[in-house]
Amino acid sequence: MMALIGKEMRMTLRSLVFYLFIIASVFFYFTSYATEETWGELSPPAASVTTQNLGTAEHPYYGRKQPGNTTELAQRMKREIDFDLNAGTTDKQRLGFSVKSKLTAEEKEALSKAVSELDRILLTPDKYTMANVYSVAGEIDKQLGGNSMYKVGLRDYGFPIESYEEAVKAQAVILSSYNAKLNAGELLPGAARYFSDYMSLPAGIFPVFLSAFLLLRDRSSRMSELTYSRRVSSWVYVGSKCIAQGIMLSLVYLILAVIGGWQTVDTLGLTGQTGEAVMIFLGYTAWWLLPTLWVSVAFGMFGSMLFRRGIVPIALQIVWWFLSVLPLMGSYGLNRLFIRFNSPDDYQLYRGWADEIALNRSFYLMLTVLLVIGAAGLWERNRSRLDSAGTLNRKKAKGALAAPDPGALR
Amino acid sequence: MELIINHLTKSYGSKQALQDISFRVGEGIHGLLGPNGAGKTTLMRLLATLLEPTSGTVEIGGVPLRDKARVRELVGYLPQEFAFYPGMSVYEAMDYLALLSGIAGRGERKRRIDNLLEQVNLMEQRRTKVKALSGGMKRRLGVAQAMVHEPKLLIVDEPTAGLDPEERIRFRRLLGRFAEGRIVLLSTHVVEDVESTCEQMTVLHQGSLRYHGRIGDLTAAAAGQVWIAELDRAEWERDRDRFPVLSAVPEGNVMRVRVLAGEQPFAGARQTVPSIEDAYLHLMRREESPV
Known about the structure:
Chain A is mainly alpha-helical. Chain A has 16 helices and four strands. Chain A starts with a helix and ends in an 8-residue tail after the last helix.
């Protein structure tokens, strides 16, 4: 099987789509992760909050800040709810797009109930944590059907800073939180999570363009009769193709992880931490990205065998991708193809979701194995059904042209 | 080594591609003839495990066809229409298919592939991309890939199509050598191939078995039925539709004709020894199967 995997890997190197995959992945890396914005977010605070007025004298603006305590968060959340109640509409996600949705009577009641809950929190904020406040938003989201902008992680409830004193205070808070992050050794893992978040976007879609045609190539190349009649078992045949493609695609991501770790350390000037950074980036890539990548490969193969068309699994994967792309944080159900954690900070939030993320990733690893087993079973079935799906008719038509009729013997 | 086919039927919906076929084939080269749509390709695909029979049984060297894994070890198949993955060289294509045939050792694969490429005269093209090969070369490569795992039953569908006469003779010799201790099932439209390589043959017609036996017996059955004559053009134009014509060669104002007939078709016509081609056409015109 090893020799077969090697051959399949070499064949992947001849695929134009594979190089397009590399280009797309590198493009995402340089346009999403390795950007000035990322380096600004990972650097000591300076960019997000400034002590200089960026607005006017009448409307001062010193940047934006995130709610720093229960009161600020509850107030911002209440403001958003009030806005929706007054407008009679709210934003909901439909296939990854945000659309306005009219509030029903039940939904209005849910929002009103949440306002009361937030009022109660605001009366004695010290008794509550920020997680308690977020859970109010989570409850609203549930009542709105699970696809609203109140989903935890979708909104940051940030707000503009309008005075110099406030800006100085905010900067001090951010600096202290940055130092705490640094001291806890959370800067590089945060960066690695950010890297994995962005890179999960191409990982969740591009592999299927390769894998959906992997097992159909025999037929399209008119090689199926030569391969199907061989001794090779379906497990070895399908398994070697899946492993070879998985390895080749994984290598691209692992190399990007090494580059990401190195570039992060280099750009942030973290002398002597390259080795550590690379290991952290590789770790997150292996655990967060590779299950997405492998399941995409397996899904493409399985779908192409089930529907005998490569385009069907591609279409389904696109829908799956759209369903997984939002929210930016906090939703890790088993239907989520990839892990979104669009923040280099928020370590506490990450800790809270770590178990859910682990369950999601373990599920996708198992799903990969199951899909490959399914693809092998379907391939074996199709192998002895050369007459189905119109294959024979097409071949017969060709054969009729190729072979002379009995009259040719005259 | 024996191939035993017993009451084999293959249906596509209401259409029967093969109807209750039964015959046995021993070692050596065995010809498979029949017009288009006779069921030859269906039969070969069934033997190569590419199709499931509707009913009936097949045994190849004592192994039932339903034991597909073992049957695939025993069978080598050259389909009529085939190609290779784009970008593969001759050697890579052979090596890949040898791997799929379970030949794990790299050295062993190399030895077998080099040997076969030598035999099919493709050694110089071993690094050439398959897509750059001529039709005849591709055909030779097809034969080589079918032999790479040294199957006990070699099924070849139109193997000599596109080969020049020299290559065809070379190919027949190759098949002859390979057939020692094995069965080679040769499906072809080139009757000459059957005549010069096979001792026995099977003829299928509309999914049914029309003939199975020695080639000599088939030609013997056509004895006294084949006539040759020389006619002037006017006579020929008048009588040409009266008899099944095997050949008609113009020579000036005269036509040298060869026809099938139960009695003397023209004055001056002489009986001649039937060729296998004559015997085949004689067989196909008979309403009842001699089987």
